[in-house]
Amino acid sequence: MVNPSAIINYILLFFASFIFLYMILVIVSYGTMLLYALRHLRKDYHLDQEKEDHDLVELQFARPVSVIVPAYNEELGIIESIHSLLSLKYPQYEIIVVNDGSTDRTMEKLLNYFQMEKTEKVFKKQIDTKPVEGIYQSKIHPDLLLIDKVNGGKADALNIGINASRYPYICSLDADSILENSALIRVMKPLLTSNGKVIAAGGSVKVANGNDIQLGSLMSVSLSDKILVVMQVIEYFRAFLMGRLALSKMNLSLIISGAFSVFEKKHVISVGGYDTTAIGEDIELVIKLQKYVKDSGGKQEIQFVPTPVCWTEAPESLHSIRKQRRRWHQGLLESLWKYRQMTFNPRYGIIGIVSLPYFWIVECLGPIIEVIGYIFVLGSFFTGSIYVEFSLLLSLLFILYGSIFSFTSVIFEAWNTRTYPSIRDLFRLILLSFTEVFWYRPLTLIWRIEGIFHFLTQKHDWGHLERKGLANKEGNT
Amino acid sequence: MIQQLVIILAIGIVVMCSLLLILTCYVVIQRLINKRARLLINNYITKHADDWYDYLINEIDNEDLIKPAYAQDFAAIEEILGKYKKNVTSNRLSLRISMFANDYMSHYYCKRLHHSRWSIRLNAIYRVLDFQIDSLTSTVIEMMDSGRKYTDQEYFHMLKIVVNFQPEKAKEIFMRPPIKLGEFEYRQLLLLLHAETKDKLLLLFDNLPEPCQYALIKVIAEKNDRNKITFLEELIADKDKEMRIRALKAISVLGTISDVNRYLPIMDSKHWEERLMLAKILNYIPVEQSSQPLKRLMQDREWWVRYQAAKSLVNSARGKLILKEFIKETDDLYAKEMANNVIQESL
User: Fold this and answer.
1) By CA distance, what is A119's nearest residue in B?
2) Residues B238 and B180 placed together within one structural domain of the fold
3) Which helix (H) or strand (E) holds B69?
4) What is the spatial distance between Cα B26 and Cα B21, in angstroms, rounded to a whole number?
5) Are B17 and A404 a contacting pair at CB < 8 A?
6) Residues of A in contact with B20 (CB under 8 A)
7) Which UniProt keywords apply (chain B) (predicted)?
8) In angstroms, how far is CA A160 from the centroid of its own chain?
9) How many Cα neighbours within 13 Å face the side chain of A423?
10) Which residues numbered 148-177 in B keep a CB inside 8 Å of some CB on A?
11) Does the interface predicted TM-score (ipTM) exceed 0.90?
12) What domain range is B308 assigned to?
C-alpha cells in the first residue's frame, strides 16, 4: 500500500524542483540581458548625442512625422502634453489630438486653450473607424489638429489619427505623457538612418511623478515622495535594463511602449492598423508587424531606443496600479494567444523560436510559478516540513531575482543614465529596491494572475486610470 | 546537496551586495568628481566669454588669452566653439574656428582619435569635421588604411572627412565605397561636395551604385538646382520604376518643366505613384494647359491621384472655377465628392 504522505512529499519535491529550475532559467535570462544592456550603455556613455540630433535636424534628414495623441477624459494632463509637443526639436511635424468621446472637459479645454476652430479636411479612410464628429484646427498653431469622434477606444482613436495624418511616419503618444524636446528626433533616428531597415521604434518611458513640469517643459527631475511611485520607478529601470534594450539589440522586440512609439505609416496600414478589439493594442500591433515582415519575406526590424525619453504619469494608488497591471498582463496574454501559431514556428525565425517562447514562459506564465513558489516557501516555514532547506534555497533565489536584481538595475542606471541626479534620491531607490521582494513583487504577481483570469474568462475591463495631472499645481491650467 | 547550494547562493548574494555597495560608492564619488569638473568648465566659460567673442566675432587675435592651459579647458573650448558653430552661420566665423582648432586643438583631438573608447573616438571624428581641422586629415586617412577594425559608423564619418577635405578622392569613394553605404549615407556625403564635384559625378551617373543615384536625385531637389532639369527629365523615361518616380518627385519639388507634352503619356502609367507626381507637377504650369489632364486625373481610380489633381486645380482662381464646372458636368460620383471636399478644404 502506498503511503499518502510519501505521495505528498513526492509532489512537493516535484514542485520545488520545478520552481527551482524555473527560477534558475529566469535569473540566467535576466542576468544575460542585463550584461548585454550594460555593455551597450557603456559603449554609448560618452557619445555626443546632441551633435547627432543637431545634424539630423539641421541637414534636413528628418522626414515629417504625424504625432497622434488619443485622449479620453484627459483634462488634467492634455494641455501639458500638447505643450511639450509644441516645443519638440523636429523640423516638420503635425500634432493630431483625437478626442475619443471624452465625458469630461478635455474637448472644451483644448478648444479654448489652443483657439481651435472647425475646419474641413479631406482624408482617405484607409482603416475602418468609428465616425468623426468634427475636425478642428488651432488658430495659433496651424499644425495642431483636433479630431472629435464617437467613443471607440484608444486603438480606434489611433486609427483615425492614422487616416487623417499627412506624413509618412506616425508617432503615438499617450495624453498623460510629455516628451523631452529631443525625444522625437532620437526615436526617429533609426527609421531615418537605416535606409528602410527599421520600420518602428519605441522610446524609453520614465515616471514623471515628482518632477517639476511647467508648460510641458521639464524643469527638474526628482523622485516622488510616494513609495508606490518609487517602486514603479524601480520597475521601469528593471524593465529597461533586463528586457527591452537587450531584446531590441537582438531584434527580438515584441513590446515597444504604447506610450511613445513611432512607425512607418505604410506598414501599419498594410496590417490594418491597431486592433480595436485588443486590450493591449500596442503589443498586438508589434507582433502583427513582426509577423507581416516575416510573412512578406522582409528583414525589417523594430527597435527600442534608450535615449529618447517620454515622461509619463504613474498611478499613485494601489487600486489604479492593480487595474493597470491586470490590463497589461491580460493584453500581453491575449496577443500571445492570438499569434500562438508563431510560437516555436521556425518560419518566424528568432522571433518565433526565442522571443515568443520567452514571453510565454518568463513574462506570461511566470507569475503563476512565482506565486506557487511564495506559497511553498511560506508553507514550508510555517509547517516546519522537511523542505525547509529547499524553501531557504528558493527564498534566496527570490531575493536574488527580486531585490538584488532591482538594486543592480538602480545602481547601473545611476552609473550610466543618471536620471535622478540627487544622491539622496539614489539612496532612497537603493533602500526601497531591497524591500521589493517582500511586498511589492508579490502584489504585482497577484495582479498579473488576475490578468490571466480575466483573459481566461474573457472579461474586458476598459477601466480608465485616475489622473492627477503632470503639471505643478501653480502651473496647471 | 541542498545545504551546499544554500551556502553557495548565500555567499553569492553577500558578494554581489558587497560589489554593488562598492559600485554605489564609486557612483557617488564619480558624481562628485563630475560636479567639480563641470564647475571648472563653467569657470573657464565665464572667465573667457568676452575673449572668445573678441576672437571669433571681432576677429581680434587674442589667442594667448584663450588657448587651453589645463585639461578641462579643452572641454570648455569645445563647448564654446560648438555653440558658436550651431548658432552663427558665417564663413568668417568657421574660418576663425578652424584656425584656432588647427593651431591649438589638433593635438588633443589626435590623441582622442586613437582613444580605446569607441564613443570618444567618434566624438573626435565629429569634431574634426565640425571645426574643420584639416591638419588631421592625414591622421584620419592613416587610421582608415591601418587595418585596425573600426565600426561602420566610424568609418563612414571618416569618409566624410576625406570627401570634405580631399574632394579629388570623392569619385573613387562614391563609385567603390570601402564600406556598404545606403542612400542616407550617400546623401550626407553629397551634401559635403562643391557644385563642380557634383557635376563631375553626374557625368558618371550610370556607373554609380543605385543608392547613390537616388541620393543624387534627392540632393538636386534639395539644393533647388534647376539647371539639372534636363537631366531629370531624361530619367522620367528610365526603365526602373523607382528611378522614374524619384525623378518626377524631384521635378515636382523644383517646380519647373521644359515641355508639358513630354509628361502627358504618364497619365496612362500603370503605377499610381507616377500619376500622382504628374498631378503635382501640373500644378506648376498655366491652368490653360493643365486643366484637361487634371480633369482626367480627377477621375483616376486611385484616391491619392484624384486628391492631388483636385488640389492642383484649386490652387488658382481659374482652376477653382474649372473645378466647379467639373462638378456640374461629371457623372463620376467619387470625383465629384473629391472636388467638393477639396473646394471646402481650401476655403
Assistant:
1) B345
2) yes
3) none
4) 9
5) yes
6) 404, 407-408, 411
7) Membrane, Transmembrane, Transmembrane helix
8) 22
9) 10
10) none
11) no
12) 273-347
